[in-house]
Amino acid sequence: MPDPLSHRRKGIILAGGSGTRLYPVTHVVSKQLLPIYDKPMVYYPLSTLMLSGIRAILIISTPQDLPLFRRLLGDGSQWGLDLSYADQPHPGGLAQAFHIGASFVCTDPSCLILGDNIFYGHHMSVSLQEADARTTGATVFAYHVLDARSYGVVEFDADGRALSIEEKPAVPRSNYAVTGLYFYDKDAVQIARDLKPSARNELEITDLNRVYLQREQLHVEILGRGSAWLDTGTHDSLLDAATFVSVLEKRQGLKIACLEEISFRMGYIDAEQVLRLAHPLRSTNYGRYLKSVVENGPGSPG
User: Fold this and answer.
1) 294, 260 Cβ separation under 8 angstroms
2) Which of 201, 219, 262, 285 has the CB geometry, 3.0–4.6 Å to 139, for a possible disulfide?
């Protein structure tokens, strides 16, 4: 089995925050531990990193929620991963992840994903692995939305090159929102250290991305109509995401963000390990699905 540390890019899942928009359901538990249909929310960003080929991953959350993440995910070895954990004592902006995770990332390239973001699409794994293969600069993903005022917004020139990035503009210059998935080269930690807090006293990820834009090292990948990006920060979007996953899984008979299946199809674990993981779940649809994955043999990870 390949060494989980042989792939140098480090992954970070930012799963902190108080989740006040989802009160009262998040009053005592992190929103990233809430179910999205048949899996905890954190499985989805974790699967995105795995499909990128990233296996050394840091999960950042609040001191009170970290024990629950540890209980759910462990050290990741059951999936061929190497999971670490770090506290976020108070929310300080998305770029704060590189302050908290500085010793984890060190001078390696990295990928940051927000713990409440779900990505899906037929060619998604190809786009992820292409972004991972870039050794210089940064790659972000843009998605066309109806109302971009709540997001970081990227503006393009006539040739499709990024001209500007603006955080939550009152008058957006485009309908393309920057999603919560960011690939960076080895400079990200130092750039984050040099950032000044914004007017809302946060280290903005848009400011970090703007540094790469000014360096002419920002690649913006547009997620087209065949892709889905779901931000599950409200009650309605939480329900929408669960419905989306439910409809696809029931229609296709294939699971989304099934970590055991992804690990198996990526070659991180073998069939025997999948069956061991399936055994405690043998009376559930999830367990029966894992058994069918082994019976059908390795294939595309999705």
Assistant:
1) no
2) 219
- State the Cα–Cα distance between residues 82 and 180, nearest whole angstrom: 22
| CA-based torsion, 139, 233, 97, 77: positive or negative | negative
Nearest CA to 157 out of 173, 146, 171, 172 is that of 173
Alpha helix segments (H runs only) across 134-280: 188-194, 205-214, 235-252, 259-265, 271-278
Residues forming beta bridges with residue 85, ordered by sequence position: 59
Question: What is the Cα–Cα distance from 269 to 110, expressed in whole angstroms?
Answer: 23
Nearest to 4 by CA among 55, 42, 48, 45: 55
Encoding tokens for residue 99? 């302050």
What average pLDDT does this structure show over 30-42? Answer: 95
Alpha-carbon span 58 to 134, nearest angstrom: 21
Task: Extract the tokens encoding 88.
Answer: 């976020």
For 168-225, how does the pLDDT look when each residue is reduced to its tens digit (9 = 90+)? 999 999 999 999 999 999 999 999 999 999 988 999 999 999 999 999 999 999 998 8
